[in-house]
Amino acid sequence: MQTKNAKTMEGIVIELEVNNHAGVMSHVAGLFSRRGFNLEGILCGSIGDGSKSRMYLLVRDDEKLEQIIKQLRKLYDVVSVSVRRDYDLALYSRIHEDNKGTKNFT
Amino acid sequence: MKYSGAEIIIKLLEIHGIKIVEGIPGGANLPLYNALYKSGIRHILARHEQGAGFMAQGMARSTGLPAVCFATSGPGATNLITAIADAKLDSVPVIAITGQVSSSLIGTDAFQEVDTYGMTIPITKHNFLVKKAEELLSVIPESFRLAASGRPGPVLIDVPKDVQLEKIEVSEWPSVLAVDKPPAPDDKVVREAAMAINASERPVLYIGGGAISAGAGPLISDLALKASIPVSSTLMGIGALASGHPLYAGMIGMHARRKTNEMFREADLIIALGVRFDDRATGKVDEFCPRARIIHVDIDGAELNKNKRVDISVISGLAEFLNDILPLIERNDRREWIDKNFGVCDETPEPGNVEPGYFGPKRLLNLIARYLPGDAIITTDVGQHQMWTAQYYPVKIPRTLLTSSGLGTMGFGMPAAIGAALAYPERTVAAICGDGSILMNIQELAVISEERLNVKVIIFNNGHLGLVRQQQELFYGKNYIASGFSCRPDFCLIARGFGIKSYDLGSADDPEGELEKALAEPGPCVINAPIMGSMNVYPMVVPGGGNHEMIGGEGNAD
Ligand SMILES: Cc1ncc(C[n+]2csc(CCOP(=O)(O)OP(=O)(O)O)c2C)c(N)n1
What we know:
Chain A has 106 residues and is α+β, with helices and mostly antiparallel strands. Chain A has three helices and four strands, in the order βαββαβα.
């Protein structure tokens, strides 16, 4: 994961709904390293009653995207996958300030 | 009634029809073995967990059904890893159940603790770390469904010792989950594919392991015969069409016949069924089929457009696709194209001159085929002997050639043969082994001996890591390093040490008669066959080159 200035932040967000248990993050992150995909940022939080989480993966919009999506869809704990081109990527660069607790980012 | 987690696992394996489990016990899976003690499931004690994994693979590959193996935590699990990775790359439904240290010790670097779950994420179709005994009631049936559904693959279930011991009330047992129905193709795409096939002058069917998984051989044959389309197979697809089928053009790729690779180069349409455009099959992928449009059908959508951009991609079960498209296909004899590819001189010669006292690999494989029953199952190790088997052994029936294709794991052959022999005790199984590979799992001779399995272990003994020596000869300036053996073990003596009969064709007065005798006699044996150390596999695609850049084997270039 690397941070960039909000203005230069590029890419798109893959939004995943996943079963919420300890191994899911390993499955998702492991997929990216094993297949040589780039992962620029991850945001994640549980939703609803806590049995599911939503993950927002910041990735490059390149020719590998189609394969990334297909491989993510194959993961057992991934319930749904969608590509968001309309999200505000500035969130990923603000994360450090946001995390210091002055703002709420979910 | 109350059951422990271990008892639940065994009971559920019984419910799923498991009759045989291979494995090795240890501290972290002893509760599981204690539950097995009271079960009718037969346990085969492997001598190395990799052996257990390959035995399960031998069962799964020969039957098409999930097979189960056990290992303890730590070294048991790490020893299993190669066999699981091998199953992943060749899409084999193996279910591995590993013991883990107790939940309270996880993360403490406890005795024999490794992160089995973390380590097996990239080499399984899916894996589970079970937290409570109750979860087993869904995890086990799910694992069977997953392993066998869609594109098959290995599933690992890691079960901490306290979960194996935890007792819970079970009032009702879950039933077996149905395997997912393969997806059916979209009508429009089927019509588009049919039009492309009907319009093609020089079509080729390129088939792989998916054809075997789907049992699609007969439908592929129907399509080939109706529209006169030559068929070529990957290593994994061998057997889908019987050797000798009028339209079967043999294996594609690195060690294909020149003519077969040339056929792909000239083709105007490739119909790729259950294949993944692996580099050993396609050669340099940019130069693969330069003149052809490509139709790619696979049950796993992620394979479409992964290694090669195709023109028509179809997510579908192969049987579903073929049943739908067959009525739309026009009869066509494509005389010129067929004559061109199935003309005279289809025989591949011996790859080199054979001196007295040695077997030529082609002759040896032909003799083995002649003396074995028609339904015999062949397994191989990895190396020259494997490629010679793929080139020369006339495989007639699907699932009778079991070989480590994707991972290319030396030491696969003998334990896989054990698995096949356990699954089909009435058939003969022959393991074609290299003198290098056999040493990687030679300990499993103990299992062949104990179970008196009808396994013939045939060692192609060339005193080398032959395929490595070949590469050094051809591409590394004959700088032979670490590819020759100065210790040549007496495999016949080793076999006798395990209580197994042996035959040395090198010292026999009538080697051919000796081979016939060895293969005809029921029960296990080890056969040592001398092969010249200088013999190569030909023809061969230059590594990194396109499939048309072949060396050697000009004899069948036409
Ligand atoms: C576990 C493993 N280690 C190393 C290799 C690399 N390798 C591929 S073929 C080969 C030589 C195999 O020798 P042998 O079993 O005697 O068969 P031959 O090629 O001589 O027929 C080696 C070392 C491999 N495929 N698998």
